[in-house]
Write a structure and sequence with these properties.
Elements (H helix, E strand, L loop, with lengths): L1 H54 L3 H7 L6 H25 L6 H26 L3 H26 L2 H22 L8 H5 L4 H36 L2 H39 L1 H38 L7 H26 L3 H24 L4 H23 L4 H4 L13
Length: 422
């Protein structure tokens, strides 16, 4: 049990290390080239990430949880096909709008996204076989090597483009190691062999489960980047750079929250199976309330030291108002318990509900941020308000959508003894 907890802790540390490495690249670019370079880099990340997440079909989660037997070759074939499609979309966008999307940064970032998407599926094999120690160690080592490679490139060349190419080399190497470590697999059991269907049937089953999962993940990824579009809409590239640097607090909260979801998901499933959906819902709401109250003091701390800390870390050009810091810190503390509510919906298999909550949050972000910017609020403050609105709507929406349905909350037997249908 202790080794299992240690492995889960290591995975959480690995995810935090990945977030730290991504933030470090932003910080290094800020020191080397100022807000404009950070803005260009962040714009490309904001454009590429939703495309690749939408193409992943949630295959990593499905490989671990899907009840239907689907062969590994089908998973891998689907992932390679969708990654290729995403790469073509990104290439078309970079070629068609070269003034807004700088190709010198776009190509190494595209290689990173392709490599990470392939590695993500192989991580699923480590999860399913419960090789979490290897999973966490790979995340940590790749994050450290990425930070070292980027630092070496910036120190020796002073070029952000070469630094991103260095990160791409590390990403490809990390994916190669992950594929090697995950290549060992247990022999197929007789039950699994008998459960096989045709390749066509397995692809259809995978798509039927993967499309709602993919749409859910894509809309939440997009939700993370829409506020940046608000800043770009009303502000300058320098505003985008300043916002992106400070908003890494929310990105970091998302990655920590994802680690929390990884840990609690199996336990939530056990509670659901043993005690029912209503008990699980009450427990999740209690945990969310505890999390919000426990994190609230950090908002006060951020108000006092946030603007000063940003100038110390990034430089005087990256100073933010206390209003912006307030909205960003509130968004961060709302983000962490959101992943508890999200895990509840995943256990209930309400993928479409999470998608519609995310879509509603995006509309709220656009309306709220757009109204604030139109009313004259500074661009960075409008974007910070937008991300707070999105986090709040998502948290409340996922808690409300977890309410038990009337037809499943208290199953009854009809008069003829036949079980009621869902």
């Amino acid at each position: 049990m202790n080794s299992y907890r240690s492995a889960l802790f290591l995975v959480a540390v690995g995810n935090i290390a990945v977030a730290g490495a991504q933030w470090y690249i932003i910080w290094l670019f800020a020191q080397q080239a100022g807000p404009t370079a950070v803005g260009r880099y962040s714009t490309l990340i904001a454009m590429m990430t939703p495309v690749f997440i939408a193409s992943q079909l949630g295959l990593r989660s499905l490989f671990v949880t899907l009840q239907r037997r689907v062969r590994w070759q089908i998973y891998l074939g689907c992932r390679l096909s969708t990654v290729g499609l995403s790469a073509l979309i990104i290439i078309g966008l970079v070629i068609s709008v070269p003034d807004q999307l700088h190709s010198s940064l776009a190509w190494p970032l595209l290689l990173i996204k392709v490599s990470d998407s392939i590695g993500d599926l192989f991580y699923a094999r480590l999860q399913k076989s419960e090789r979490l120690l290897a999973f966490g160690l790979i995340l940590i080592i790749v994050a450290l090597l990425s930070a070292l490679a980027v630092t070496a490139a910036v120190v020796t060349t002073g070029s952000p483009e070469i630094a991103v190419w260095a990160a791409a080399v590390v990403s490809v190497g990390g994916t190669a190691v992950t594929m090697k470590v995950a290549s060992a697999r247990p022999p197929e059991t007789a039950a699994e062999a008998n459960d096989r269907t045709t390749a066509h049937g397995e692809v259809i089953a995978l798509l039927a489960a993967g499309i709602p999962m993919s749409m859910m993940q894509a809309v939440y990824s997009l939700l993370s980047y829409v506020p940046l579009a608000i800043v770009a809409w009303f502000g300058s590239p320098e505003d985008v750079g300043r916002y992106a640097s400070a908003a890494y607090l929310v990105v970091f909260a998302n990655l920590v929250g994802a680690s929390i979801e990884t840990v609690v998901l199996p336990r939530f499933r056990v509670v659901h199976e043993s005690d029912g959906a209503d008990v699980l819902r009450r427990r999740v709401r209690r945990l969310c309330s505890i999390g919000l109250f426990a994190l609230a003091p950090f908002v006060i701390l951020a108000l006092f030291i946030g603007p000063w800390l940003l100038t110390v870390v990034y430089g005087a050009e990256f100073e933010l108002t206390r209003v912006s810091v307030l909205y960003l810190s509130l968004a961060a503390i709302c983000t962490l318990p959101t992943y508890l509510a999200s895990a509840n919906l995943l256990v209930l298999n309400r993928y479409w509900a999470t998608f519609f909550v995310g879509a509603t949050a995006i509309v709220a972000v656009l309306v709220g941020g757009g109204a604030a910017g139109t009313a004259g609020m500074p661009a960075v403050e409008a974007g910070s308000l937008a991300v707070f609105i999105g986090s709040t709507v998502r948290l409340l929406g996922e808690i409300l959508c977890a309410k038990p349905r009337r037809d499943s909350a208290s199953p009854k037997e009809p008069a003829d003894g036949a079980a009621l249908g869902g």
